[in-house]
Design goal:
Order of helices and strands: EHEEHEHHEHHEEEHEEEEHEEHHE
CATH class of the largest domain: Alpha Beta
Structural class: alpha/beta
Largest sheet: 6 strands, antiparallel
Radius of gyration: 20 Å
Distance between the termini: 30 Å
Strand order of the largest sheet: 14-13-10-11-12-15
Number of strands: 15
Number of helices: 10
Strand content: 25-35%
Length: about 325
């Protein structure tokens, strides 16, 4: 009997690719949800639902109704605003498998300032980082400025002067405590899929060098890199996510990875991870374990995204 997987963020490129890949195996029934009823991704599901925003008080009740109606076995929230609420679903559905890291890790990771402090406390490499409310006039430009809580590179900018920094605050209208300032690290940017099961076994580490992005990664290529792999294993050993997570880092001089963000969920580049030979969803669904072994993947494997058209009759 097919297991039923329910994923949110159904309009996202990564979710669409994951849904198509999992359906092709013939072992899963795929339910997708999204806020946008026109999202193309909903047409690739066995069943689709329009969801309230993760910030909406009705979000949880809507998801509970779908899980009950569709007899969902696995729930995968892929939108940051939905994630913390999703842990409470276990109270209503004890047998439901939710593919997320541990709650405490997730709570820290969703607050970029708290995560940086946690990285520093555990001697994990990260950029010098400040809150806007605590800056001095001795800042060294260029700097990277971003919201303390946010996703998808929204309002992430490179700033080259104090005047630009002040303008950023005015334009975004963010409180001083909600603006994060980081030193700009020169090097190659990577997004890394780290697959960890509930008991802390690291099953796979897939580094993907970003070729270019517009909000989400548009083109990337898989790279094998021992420094990145060792660092991601160290993150698991020190912070204990015990679930899937995504590390964003800069590789300096091809040998020094510096973490600038960690996302407590699957990355939008899940499509490339799966295509390179690591099914980071099925590995956790089926409780795969490979003692003392990290799964390999296709190296120098490129993903590039493009736009297409989908036609359907309005309901």
């Amino acid at each position: 009997m097919k297991k039923t997987i329910f994923m949110t963020g159904g309009g996202g490129a990564g979710t669409i690719a994951a849904a198509k890949f999992l359906k092709s195996k013939g072992r899963y029934r795929i339910i997708l949800g999204d806020m946008d009823k026109w999202a193309a991704g909903l047409r690739f599901a066995d069943k689709a639902y329009v969801l309230p925003s993760g910030k909406n008080i009705n979000f949880l009740n809507s998801v509970k109704g779908i899980i009950s109606k569709e007899r969902v076995n696995i729930f995968i929230p892929l939108v940051d605003e939905e994630i913390l609420k999703s842990y409470s679903l276990k109270k209503y559905f004890p047998d439901l498998k939710i593919l997320l890291p541990e709650y405490n890790f997730t709570k820290i990771a969703l607050d970029k300032w708290r995560m940086i402090k946690e990285l520093k406390k555990n001697n994990l490499p990260c950029p010098d980082t400040y809150l806007y409310s605590r800056i001095s006039k001795k800042l060294k430009f260029p700097l990277i400025v971003k919201p303390r809580i946010g996703r998808g590179s929204r309002n992430v900018m490179e700033i080259n002067s104090l005047n630009q920094l002040r303008a950023y605050k005015i334009i975004t209208n963010l409180p001083s405590e909600s603006i994060l300032i980081q030193e700009k690290i020169e090097g190659k940017e990577f997004t890394v899929s780290v697959v960890v099961n509930k008991v802390g076994n690291v099953l796979a580490v897939v580094p993907k060098e970003i070729i270019y992005k517009r909000g989400i990664t548009i083109a990337a290529v898989t790279r094998k890199n021992k420094y990145i792999q060792d660092l991601c294993i160290e993150i698991q050993n020190k912070l204990h996510p015990n679930g899937p997570f995504n590390v964003q880092l800069i590789l300096k001089n091809n040998c020094m990875p510096v973490i600038f963000e960690i996302n407590p969920r699957y990355s939008t580049t899940i499509a490339l991870t799966m295509a390179s030979g690591v099914d980071e969803i099925e590995l956790l669904i089926e409780n795969k374990i490979f003692p003392r072994k990290i799964l390999s993947f296709k190296e120098n494997f490129v993903m590039t995204r493009f736009y297409d058209q989908l036609f359907f009759r309005e309901r």
